Amino acid sequence: MATYAIGDIQGCWQELKKLLKKVDFGKKDELWLCGDLVNRGPESLAVLRFLRDLDGRCKIALGNHDLHFLAILFGGHQPTPKDTLDELLAAPEVEELGHWLRQQRLLYRERDHILVHAGVPPKWGAKQAEAYADEVTAVMGGKKARSKKGALGFADFFRDLYGNEPPLWDQSLTGMTRLRTIVNYLTRMRMIDNRGALNFTYKGALANAPQNLSAWFDNPSAAERRHKILFGHWASLNGETGNGQCVALDTGCVWGRELTAYCLETGERSVQSALG
Predict the structure, then answer these.
(1) Which domains does the chain have, with CATH numbers?
(2) pLDDT digit string, tens, across residues 232-267
(3) DSSP codes, 209-251
(4) pTM score, two decimals?
């Protein structure tokens, strides 16, 4: 049995098929996915159909593009001009796929690894990060669509998901403000300031980053973590962090570069070049 962690697929179904064939992905093997399964690429529907049918052999840490799809489907938001979700949104089983997807998690902590889309804030321990992610999962994956007696439902959550405020975590946050801030750290984080506040603007390479900001994984506490963090989201890193405990897996397939798989058991990387 082998376990393969794969970076942002973003609808690149043909490349995913070839990558799985390259690593000889078998019936006893497992996939760990860093989120952003859909959008920007051409075949989001095929990707979700395949992953749903893996029937328990797939762990998914949802990314911001996955949440965007769910916010369109359940929260009343509209697609943006850059979205490539038309086929998925028009599929006869779109709601079934949406309900399956919203029951996935934002973070997994297992076998001395953490699977997450964007990263783990330096000030959060592994157990803290898991607990905060579980707060979101309880609402996002819950049975109630609308709030009753003050409790948020999943449709309320997706309706009110968007926003950059507050950019800095505070344990005293409550309600949707708290959930939104947790989501932003786990699915949108790249650069932070010296307080740990999120910067939502800079998405480029580390060499050109503003001097008042640092990558979340450059904090000394990230290198000292017992868990190895597997993450995607930041294609400009091209798989390089300089930190052996933080493994970057978004290598920009949807932008014409590569789709990457990382074997948990061996530490080997396998890549499939973009076909487009």
Answers:
(1) 3-273 (3.60.21.10)
(2) 999 999 999 999 999 999 999 999 999 999 999 999
(3) --TT-EEGGGSHHHHT-SSEEEE-S-GGGTT--S-TTEEE---
(4) 0.96
